[in-house]
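Crash report, auto-generated. Payload:
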Amino acid sequence: MKRIVPLLLLLLLAAPACYRESPAVVTLTVQLKLDHPEAAIDIGQLEVRLQNKDAAFGYIKHPDADGQVVFDVAPGKYDVMAAGWFTATRIAVNGASEEFLLTTSGLIDAQGEAHAPQLEVLLHVAIPNPLIIREAYYHGSSTLEGANYTKDTYIELYNNAGPGGQVVYLDSLCLAAIYPYNSTTGNNAWAGLDTIPIAQMYWMFPGDGHTYPLAPGESAVVACIAAVDHRGRAMSALQLNRAHFGCWSETLSRHEIAAGVVPMVLNMTGQGTAWALSIHSPALVVFRPEMGVAAYQSQAALWERYEPGKSSGTKYWHIAKDWILDGVECVDAPSSAIKRLPGTVDASYVWMRSAHYSGKCVTRKLDFRAEGIEIFMDTNNSDADFEPDSDPQPRLR
Amino acid sequence: MRKLLIIGLLAVFATAAIAQERNAARLVLEDTSYVDVSLGVTGKMGALKDVFEGSREIGGALGVDSRRTLGKAHLYGRFGYGYEYGQDHTWRGWIDPYETPFMLADSIPGSISLERYSMEAGVGLPVGGGWSVGLDAAYDVALMAKHKDLRNKNTAMTFRIAPGVSWQGERLGLGLDVGYERSTERVEYMQVSESRENVLFDLYGLWLGHGSGFASAENRRMKERDRFFGGFQVDLSLGSVAIQNDFRVDWHQGVQTEVGYNNRQFGTTHAWNWSDALSLEIGRAHHIEASVSFTTMEGLRPLQRQELEPDSRIRVWVTYGDPVSCYWRRSHLEKLRYVFGTSWQLIASVSNMGFEHVYNEYPQRFTQHYHTVVSTLAVAIPIGPVRLTPMLGYAINYDAFTDVTSWQLQEPLLRQWDYWEGNNYLGALDLKWTSATGRCYVQAHYSIDASTAADADGTRQTASVTVGFVF
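Recovered output after restart:
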């Protein structure tokens, strides 16, 4: 009995033990810094978004006059995006951080270095480019019988220069999706590097340099898999036999092309039967290698490389960030989304709220019309520039 | 028995496990020898159901219980096999989806089959002076499979060992047992159809989570739990008054990881459970049972990201800092049951239960709380070898609130909440026939749970029949 009583008392002492709500809070200070301090902008009008990468939670604040924002949030995996569009001056400013971890003891950056919970985000003044991706339809639809259908995907390019603007020649421009294929992949091994990898293949517009002009206000639709009439196959009923270009190669057995559609030129690593374009989160780019495509391809030893840190496995063609004329980072959802495009190309990302295979697409928002020509939003910030879940309306031939 | 089901499922899920535990040292208090073989079938149907339940469920169970005295040793053994099949199950990523807030699950309704094998053995040995020692051990296996994409296959194991000690005097008896339980459950998702993409959801409490297109490389998860428990029993006999009390406490830690090499973790849980059950007999005609239990749980999520491991050149998940507390659950259950009579019996019971769930990822906070009282009245009527027990009851929900936000998966949240809140009529009829020799019995049960709201969820009916033989 003398031994049992102390044991009983121990059990009773344990009874008050209880887990009480005690959320951890970390204070993160974000300092915005302009790469062109002379740009006349009111930094207080920018929106700074702190996005939790493990959950869907995102927090938006405006900085003070000194460009500083303070967030009190739970520890977690985050990134920061800052953007502003000044209508009067037509200046767009944006910037983004790499993904980082915020712990109770500080900030762990992408390289694994520990810091105080303070972050500096460099803001870039966006320089509009005449050639833009106006619409991207990658979500797929369904067959007439209800099965998933992905062969009707397309990308539309547009000359956004406006009245009197320059004519863009598509010849030798390239179209690609960036690796990793999906935004849901654990992380991006290329984060913070100056070159970014292409997923599996890229497509070059044919021509001798002056074959395919695109005047301001004109579009070119590129069918990604099957440049055919999909009306008898899919609920999307897209007539991509009227696309301007088709991604087609006889080495890709799943690709199709109708007469009259100009085939793109394929450059592929490895093997495959089709362009493996993500149906939920491709990062799409239009680029031009500064040395020309032929020279680029001849420098495979320089530009075709393994994943950073690896010396075997899959090789990826890489491109320099500066070669990208336009890009759009499409993610499945903000939570767990990795960032593949640099902030100078796309400071944020766009995501579809509709279910996969919904038959919806992402489309540029119209900014204004001048002399009958549409000018679309181009602030290098796809969250502001694109409308998700819009109905596909390709401007076909 | 909707409210009672919630109590069982949610409020004190661990109490169910505790109830299976025994202080094997106390086997010596009853000198008995028998083998009880039972075979039963159960069916459930009706729209008034929890989000994890099937619209129709049918199950069969075979059980063999045995007590023997071998020399001074008092032995107990049990083997059980159960098979359940249910239609239109959704979101059931774990066999017990209420055990933890962290779960992989999908929304597509499908049939589920569940097999359970359970084995338990105990031995009690008197050692003189009123003292006895004992050891109880149990091993359970469960296999669950969903038969429609996404298809989860769950394999679960529980092993438990609990030594105990007991002292019995003329009027006073004391018992103490402690134990350890290890349980694991592995879930693996697969998809057969190639023409549809399905979404797999990573849930972490109060229907928060995110879904992504099914990828075969990320579809396996392992849940492990270590539980430590103890109990203290007191028996007191004072003439015609007999008192029995069992106080139990347990603590567990659970962790979920990805199956494989890459160190990925999904969440950790800690929980305390306390319960006390008091039984009081006054003469032969009055029997009072009172019990209270309390559960408190904390859920934590790790801070992880994938990094290249320099030696192996593969990407592994690296953990930084301490896990972050994000989920809290508190629940309580108080029950009082009074039985009056010796032949005919009047059985009155009332129970009060409540819980509070919180998910807090500062500054976001989501809560849910719920309280209900269930009162029942039953009469046990002996008619020859048959004992008939009709029961009527009413469940009244006196406090209920849930956040419903765009961050949460609203469809299952509202479906679950629609089932929980509201008042219910309860009805049941139990029948037990025992043969003259006492060697054969048949038990039949029927119950109905009906929502009091005319426009609500209708009813849920349960029926079961068990045939048993005692040797």
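Post-recovery validation: Residues 1-19 of chain B have pLDDT under 50 and may be disordered.
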